[in-house]
Amino acid sequence: MWFEVAFKGALGLVLAILPLTTLRVLGLHRDSQRFWPRLVGCLLAGIAMGTALTMLTPQARGGIGPAGLIPINLTLAAGLLSALVWGTSAPARRGRFAVLVLGLASLALAFLEIAHI
Questions:
Q1: pLDDT at 5
Q2: How many domains does the chain fold into?
Protein backbone atom coordinates (compact mmCIF):
# COMPACT_ATOMS: atom_id res chain seq x y z
CA MET A 1 0.00 0.00 0.00
CA TRP A 2 2.97 2.32 0.35
CA PHE A 3 3.46 2.15 -3.41
CA GLU A 4 -0.11 3.31 -3.87
CA VAL A 5 0.41 6.21 -1.46
CA ALA A 6 3.53 7.29 -3.36
CA PHE A 7 1.90 6.77 -6.78
CA LYS A 8 -1.30 8.68 -6.04
CA GLY A 9 0.41 11.29 -3.91
CA ALA A 10 3.04 12.14 -6.51
CA LEU A 11 0.56 12.21 -9.39
CA GLY A 12 -1.88 14.26 -7.32
CA LEU A 13 0.70 16.85 -6.31
CA VAL A 14 2.04 17.20 -9.84
CA LEU A 15 -1.49 17.61 -11.22
CA ALA A 16 -2.38 20.15 -8.53
CA ILE A 17 0.77 22.24 -9.01
CA LEU A 18 1.40 21.94 -12.78
CA PRO A 19 -1.88 20.82 -14.37
CA LEU A 20 -1.34 21.89 -17.99
CA THR A 21 2.31 20.82 -18.10
CA THR A 22 1.41 17.39 -16.74
CA LEU A 23 -1.31 16.95 -19.34
CA ARG A 24 1.06 18.06 -22.10
CA VAL A 25 3.82 15.66 -20.98
CA LEU A 26 1.38 12.74 -20.76
CA GLY A 27 -0.08 13.59 -24.18
CA LEU A 28 -3.61 14.14 -22.89
CA HIS A 29 -6.24 16.66 -24.01
CA ARG A 30 -5.57 20.14 -22.65
CA ASP A 31 -8.19 22.77 -22.00
CA SER A 32 -7.67 26.39 -21.12
CA GLN A 33 -9.21 25.70 -17.71
CA ARG A 34 -6.95 24.42 -14.97
CA PHE A 35 -9.78 23.69 -12.56
CA TRP A 36 -10.54 20.04 -13.41
CA PRO A 37 -6.96 18.74 -13.49
CA ARG A 38 -6.27 20.52 -10.20
CA LEU A 39 -9.44 19.10 -8.68
CA VAL A 40 -8.42 15.56 -9.69
CA GLY A 41 -4.91 16.21 -8.36
CA CYS A 42 -6.25 17.37 -5.00
CA LEU A 43 -8.55 14.33 -4.80
CA LEU A 44 -5.66 11.95 -5.54
CA ALA A 45 -3.44 13.70 -2.99
CA GLY A 46 -6.24 13.52 -0.41
CA ILE A 47 -6.73 9.80 -1.01
CA ALA A 48 -2.97 9.29 -0.64
CA MET A 49 -2.85 11.28 2.61
CA GLY A 50 -5.85 9.41 4.02
CA THR A 51 -4.25 6.08 3.17
CA ALA A 52 -0.91 7.15 4.66
CA LEU A 53 -2.55 8.31 7.89
CA THR A 54 -4.44 5.02 8.13
CA MET A 55 -1.22 3.06 7.75
CA LEU A 56 0.73 5.25 10.18
CA THR A 57 -1.95 5.16 12.88
CA PRO A 58 -3.66 1.75 12.69
CA GLN A 59 -5.45 2.30 16.01
CA ALA A 60 -7.37 5.27 14.58
CA ARG A 61 -10.85 4.55 13.28
CA GLY A 62 -12.43 5.70 10.04
CA GLY A 63 -9.43 5.79 7.71
CA ILE A 64 -9.15 4.58 4.13
CA GLY A 65 -8.05 0.97 4.29
CA PRO A 66 -7.79 -1.70 1.60
CA ALA A 67 -11.57 -2.15 1.59
CA GLY A 68 -12.00 1.52 0.71
CA LEU A 69 -9.22 1.58 -1.86
CA ILE A 70 -10.61 -1.34 -3.86
CA PRO A 71 -13.68 0.52 -5.19
CA ILE A 72 -11.62 3.68 -5.73
CA ASN A 73 -9.11 1.82 -7.89
CA LEU A 74 -11.75 -0.21 -9.74
CA THR A 75 -13.73 2.95 -10.54
CA LEU A 76 -10.59 4.75 -11.67
CA ALA A 77 -9.58 1.83 -13.88
CA ALA A 78 -13.09 1.56 -15.34
CA GLY A 79 -13.17 5.26 -16.15
CA LEU A 80 -9.75 5.29 -17.77
CA LEU A 81 -10.10 2.06 -19.72
CA SER A 82 -13.65 2.79 -20.91
CA ALA A 83 -12.49 6.11 -22.36
CA LEU A 84 -9.72 4.21 -24.09
CA VAL A 85 -12.17 1.68 -25.56
CA TRP A 86 -14.57 4.41 -26.73
CA GLY A 87 -11.70 6.28 -28.37
CA THR A 88 -12.19 9.49 -26.40
CA SER A 89 -9.19 9.18 -24.09
CA ALA A 90 -6.48 11.23 -25.78
CA PRO A 91 -5.65 12.74 -29.16
CA ALA A 92 -2.04 11.48 -29.26
CA ARG A 93 -0.67 7.93 -29.18
CA ARG A 94 1.47 8.86 -26.16
CA GLY A 95 -1.70 9.93 -24.32
CA ARG A 96 -3.52 6.70 -25.14
CA PHE A 97 -0.50 4.76 -23.88
CA ALA A 98 -0.43 6.82 -20.66
CA VAL A 99 -4.16 6.17 -20.12
CA LEU A 100 -3.62 2.45 -20.73
CA VAL A 101 -0.71 2.28 -18.26
CA LEU A 102 -2.59 4.25 -15.58
CA GLY A 103 -5.73 2.16 -16.04
CA LEU A 104 -3.86 -1.15 -15.85
CA ALA A 105 -1.88 0.08 -12.83
CA SER A 106 -5.12 0.98 -11.03
CA LEU A 107 -6.59 -2.40 -11.91
CA ALA A 108 -3.46 -4.18 -10.65
CA LEU A 109 -3.55 -2.20 -7.39
CA ALA A 110 -7.20 -3.15 -6.90
CA PHE A 111 -6.43 -6.84 -7.41
CA LEU A 112 -3.45 -6.64 -5.04
CA GLU A 113 -5.67 -5.08 -2.39
CA ILE A 114 -8.30 -7.78 -2.93
CA ALA A 115 -5.57 -10.37 -2.37
CA HIS A 116 -4.43 -8.46 0.74
CA ILE A 117 -7.84 -8.68 2.43
A1: 93
A2: 1
